[in-house]
Amino acid sequence: MGLRLIPAFLFLIANFVLGVSAQAADTNTTSIARVGCSWVPNDRNTTSLLQSCVITLLSCTWTVIHLNIPAPHESRFSFFKRKLKWTVLTLIAPEITCSIALRQWEESRAIVEEMKRRGVEWTLTHGFYATMGGYVLHHEGFKIPLLPSEIILLLDDLDQAPPFQLPPIKAIDIEDRSKASGFAKVFTLTQITWLVAQCIVRGAKHLPISELEVATIAFATCTIIANCFWWSKPLDVRMTTAVRYDGILPASLSSLASKGWKDRKSLQRVKMTTRIIRRGSRRSMFFNLVLPLFLFSTAFSVVHLVAWDFDFATPRERCLWRTCSLIATLAPIIIAGSLQVASIWDTGVATDRSQKTIAAPEFAVLVILCYFLSILAYVVARVVLIFLVFYCLRSMPVGIYSSIPWLEFMPHV
What we know:
Blueprint: H1 5-24, E1 34-35, H2 46-64, H3 76-92, H4 94-117, H5 124-131, E2 135-139, E3 142-145, H6 148-156, H7 171-177, H8 182-204, H9 211-229, E4 241-244, H10 251-254, H11 261-302, H12 315-351, H13 361-391, E5 396-397
Parallel strand pairs: 2-4
Antiparallel strand pairs: 1-5, 2-3
Helix pairs in contact: 1-8, 1-9, 2-3, 2-8, 2-9, 3-4, 4-5, 4-9, 4-11, 8-9, 9-11, 11-12, 12-13
C-alpha cells in the first residue's frame, strides 16, 4: 500500500518542478524590487512562511520515525529521547532514515518469504514485527528477543522435542498494538500537499518561491519515501509476544540465553545489517546498502537545483547556491563510485596476490583522496545550503509575500 503512493507523490513533485521552472525562467538576479522580512499581519508574511515550513518539517520527521520495540526496563522518557534523537538525525540527514527504512523493508519481505516456504502465512506487518523484536523467547527464566534468522532456525530444527511453534497472532492484533495516529498522518500529508500545491500555483502565476519552501519539499520527499517503506511497520509498539519453549535450544542460541536484553538488542542491530551483506558478499553490500544510501542523498539534493534560476539578492548568493546544490547532488555518486572501485580493487588483490599488475599505489591513493574529499565537500555543501535557506529571507523578491486567496481555503497550518 505504501509503495503505491510513490507514483502519486512523484507526479506532484514533477508538477512542482515544472511550475517552479516556469517561474524561475522569467527572473534574473537583482532585476526585481526586493523586500526584507515582513512581520505585517497578512495571509503570507515571514512568520507564516517560517511557521508553515517548520511545522511541515517537524510533522514529517516525527511521524515517519518507526522505532523498534524497546527493552522492558526502558522508560517512556527514554523511549521519547530515543525518538527525539532519530528525529534530529532525520532533520540533519534524511537519506539515512530512508536507507534504514529500505533495509528493514527488504529484511521483512525476506522473512515473510521464508515463512511462506514453511507453510506459515505471514503478512508484511508480521515481518516487520519480527524484525523489530516482537517475538521474545522465554526459556529457563531468560528472555531472548528472537532475530528473524533464529525463528527460522528453531522452526527448521527437527530434532527438537517438543517441536518449536510460534504462537498465532493476526496482523490486526499487531496493528492494534501500534500507536499509529491517523490524525497525525493525515495532518502531515495535508500539510505537504498544501505546500507543494502552493509552489506549483505560484510557479504557474510567476510569483516568487522561497528557498526555504524548496528545502522543505526536499525533506518531505525523503520522509515520504521512508514512510512508504515503513507503511506496514507498527508504530511505537511496546508489547511483545511471548514464545515459551522448554526444549533444548540450538548451540547458537543457548550461548546467548544468559545475555542481557541490551546486549541482545545491539546484536540484533548488527545481524539485521549483516543479513543482506552475507547474501551476496561485497557486491550485495554495495547494491543493497551503499548505493541506496547515496541515491537517496542525491534525490534529496537534486530538489535544491529547482532554485537554480531563482532571484537571489546578489550574484554571489546565486553562485553559492548553484555550486553547493551541484556538489551535494554529485558528491554521493562520486563517493559510491569510489567505494565500488576500491571494493573491486581490493577483491582483485585478495584473489590474485601473485600478480603485480593490479592497480598502482598512486591509483589507490587517488581513490581514497577522492572519497574523503567528496565526503568533506558534501558536508560543507549541505551546511552552506542550510545557511542560505534562512539567510536569503533577509532580502526576497517583493512578490514573495503575495498570497493566492483560494489556496488559503485548503486545510493547512
